[in-house]
Amino acid sequence: MVTVEQGAGAGQGPDVTLLKDMVGVQKALRLLVERKLPLTKDAVVALLEAQQEVYSSEGLFVKKGQALREIITALEQGTISVEEIFRGAGISTVVAPPQKSGLAKLWDKIRGK
Fold first, then answer.
1. pTM above 0.85, yes or no
2. Domain boundaries, the chain
């Protein structure tokens, strides 16, 4: 399990479930978890700011850019926590152990493990 930095927020912040619609944000958050990087407020804010700049530069997703700005501000102010960001995006911070391939399982069976 990856450790998630928790804030003092009580959930009065913006709607973080909007992150489920943001594919780039989801991919980046998943990578943080998969690579077992520290899930700190600074790391998540930097990730969200980079994605918000992408939305702003394209000019096509104004509402998503505004939603990200609200989420970033709430995260920086401590209104919401990093844990709420991951929960809102629908991403588990529990890293599953790697699965053995069929060949590895067969080899273990042959060796008697």
1. no
2. 16-111
